[in-house]
Amino acid sequence: MGSDGQNWYLGLTYDQWVPLSVSGPTPAARYKHAAVTVDGKLYIIGGSRNGRYLSDIQVFDLKCLTWSTIKLNSGVLPATSGHNMILWENKLLFLAGHSKDVSDTVTVRFIDLQSYECGVIETFGKLPVARGGQSVTFFGSKLIMFGGEDQHRRLLNDISVLDLETMTWSTVETTQTSPAPRFDHTAALHADRYLLILGGCSHSIFFNDLHVLDLETMEWSQPQLQGDLVSPRAGHAGVTIGDNWYIVGGGDNKSGVPETLMLNMSKLVVSVLATVKGRDPLASEGLSVSSASLDGENFLVAFGGYNGKYNNEVYVMRPKPRDVLHPKILQSPAAEAAAAASVRAAYALTKPEKVRLIRERRYQF
Fold first, then answer.
1. Beta carbons of 77 and 61 less than 8 angstroms apart
2. What percent of the chain has pLDDT over 90?
3. SS3 of residue 300 by DSSP
4. Which DSSP state fits 23?
5. Contacts 24+ apart (CB under 8 A), 354-363
6. What is the pTM of this model?
7. What domains are there in the chain, each with its CATH number?
8. What is the pLDDT of residue 7?
9. InterPro entries recorded for this chain (predicted)?
10. What is the DSSP code string of 149-218?
């Protein structure tokens, strides 16, 4: 796909992955890197290749279709794989992951996008054990970390919360059945209330289950998905746009997953959006997918991954806008309450005989 002027993306067919032809040098192929898009630019940090951890910071300009490398003005970013990256104010926060940097607890680093300075953020409270392959999800001014694998290959299924305003970690006690310990899963936040965990693996099992944590009651449930089948997978990538959670790639050590799925988080219905051929970079483990807004329209941007070879291509998809069915402006308070009740019912525990009073108490964490 060439760049016909600056608005190459406006002619893309909906719901199809397109490889971008890039001008200039490209970064080393890799997997288990971290990615985030900011102002039409895709930032890629670290990852691994042939057993070696990487520490470079690469930026892909989605308007000009060119890569560049960021050189830090101060501080050092250790070579890391299996970490997470979150945009917070004008900084990229960089959490956890496996590296040769020996620390018993999760380290939080930052890169200032204006000064290109980098450093460690001092955190307080109950610091979680160091790990890689965890998920980190933004929730208000907090980050919620779930699962992963520690330095001794012990699998985790704990929940830790980092309050970004006080930089204090806390652990959260949950009720009902937690997901089995796992790593290389993906997570999403729905309706500012529900944390969804999908797939991942232990050392012997690849999962295709969905678990939901109600962040008000701290109660786990395992609702049934409708629609297309979700095959077991780990190392997949996910990103949300509105009510829809787009899940790309992953694999089970034998083969990559060729389908790009869309999970409607309100209805818990899965549909296959696109299918690629077996050895396509999009059927990889350890790839990344981000969403970028270009001229007010959302696009999915995928990079990297491993499926027998390491990849460094950039792919984009223009997802068909799907949230037009219920414009927010027209909803009366009664309709909103009914919609919220239907979401709660869909996410409720599948135990009809157990009637519980609605608790007014809200959990602080």
1. no
2. 79
3. strand
4. B
5. 359/217, 362/216, 363/215, 363/216, 363/217, 363/218
6. 0.89
7. 17-349 (2.120.10.80)
8. 83
9. Kelch-typ_b-propeller, Kelch_1
10. EETT--EEEEEEEEETTTTEEEE---BSPPPPS-BS-EEEEETTTEEEEEEEE-SS-EEEEEEEEETTTT
